[in-house]
Design goal:
This protein has seven helices and 13 strands. It has 259 residues and is α+β, with helices and mostly antiparallel strands.
Amino acid sequence: MDTAENEKLIIAKLDDKIRTCKTKNKIVNTEFLNLYQKQIIQKRLNELKIKNYIFSGGFKEAESKILILFPDKLDEEIIESNLDNIINAIKVKLPNELKGKYKHGDYLSSLMRLGLIRERIGDIIVYEDEAYIIVLKENAEYIKNSLKEFTKFKKSEIEIIKLSEVNSKGPEMQEINIHANSMRLDSIVSEIAKCSRNKAEELIKSEKVSINCKYEYKLSKQVNIGDIIIVRGSGKYIINDVRENPKTKRLSINLKKYI
């Protein structure tokens, strides 16, 4: 599916949710959205002048969020105070012998084996001895019971908890500085991946580079402060600051790399 068709599908699903909310006078929500999907939806909501909605990922620092639309009889405060009716959290407490053994990918790979699409699961917050998995309430019981069946979690304590009990944190990041002649995507990717421009072109054209969760194929695409770039094999970065050297005219670009 190309970009235009994908955007049309996202908008069509949103419009259907809006109609349901209005005609049935009920609260409706989407699945978890990435940044690209959220941008498309936000633009459509602005076009339609929709006011009764919130985005929530279950905790303040969440990256993956759902859209919740609500009828006029309700307000944002009521929706936020009743989020546990829509989003749940699953807490996985590891035994002492597994402390520090599991990373984000270990939890995600297990979840993907349950037959659920990625959009049914929100952020996964990982600590040395525990993890918090944000999910839609309708899937919470199934996910909790299924995780208990995996050998790696046999000795773990797994329970569904309230969102207020989530030990949340923002993403861990490391600051990195690179230098480039321009803010062209191929130039930035070349520096991030520490490769030639030809190799950077290959990465971009083979769907190994995304900006704000959307694959980008245009080599000359201008990258901006705040953009999130993922280069497969090299990590995930946010453009934090850009400064030009007045003598050389080269750019000093400050990145924050997700650890």
